[in-house]
Amino acid sequence: MHPSDLDPEDETDLAPYERELPRRQVRRRYTAKRAAETFEIDGDLTKKAWAAAEWTEDFVDIEGPLKPEPRHRTRAKLLWDAQHLYIAAELVEPHLWATLTERDAVIFHDNDFEVFLNPSCDGLNYYELEVNALGTVWDLVLRKPYRMGGPADSEWRIEGLRTAVQLDGTLNDPTDTDRGWTVEIAIPFAALGIHTETPAAPEVGDRWLLNFSRVQWDLEVHEGAYRKVPKTPEHNWVWSPQGMVDMHLPLRWGWLHFAE
């Protein structure tokens, strides 16, 4: 069966670990167009290539509409070509803050932007990428979700990955008010080989399971610097709501459709 023929909408096909969980939310969909030209990955989303791509809906709370709307806007857009999946994100942020500089650190301990991809559409062998406002990256792969006992493999790398961020404001400076940051990503299809024996670009009409997440911490100023408000959990804002605080439910992600 082709991955695009799988139907995670069918409640009878829920993974065993899902059957006792809160019901999933309405699944969002995005159609990615082919990029008309090659372009530099520099974090600038005003370049001509991105004008052809539609923005996603604004991100919502990970649990869905029963929770308050996020206080800062987040949205994303995608393009693709024969070699890469391109992702752009725009994050409104009045307090630009990041601390982690080491590759494969646990980036969601800072505010971050996250990408989740399941090309096989079966909830297995999926990819995760996290980026903070310093441009520090954590890329990892999971053979199966944590609820199925799947450990994350942080030794795995997206070979040829290109990322860039641009800041509209000043990082780690609590004396002013910032406007936000943008993220630009190019993921080579050739690097996504965990789910298939023959890594390749998708074909027109294919679809993958996809989600985006933004982790946002409440901050305060202490001795002239930002720090997390003690004993306060993070906010989880996502493109396609999960129905509960767990991004590692791939069968609840949204659909990414590849179009001409």
UniProtKB/TrEMBL annotation:
Residue stretches making up the Carbohydrate-binding domain: 41-195
GO biological process: carbohydrate catabolic process
Coiled-coil regions listed in the entry: none
GO MF terms, alphabetically ordered: carbohydrate binding; hydrolase activity, hydrolyzing O-glycosyl compounds
PANTHER family the record matches: CARBOHYDRATE-BINDING DOMAIN-CONTAINING PROTEIN, SIMILAR TO POLYHYDROXYALKANOATE DEPOLYMERASE
Protein name as annotated: Carbohydrate-binding domain-containing protein
Taxonomic source organism: Engelhardtia mirabilis
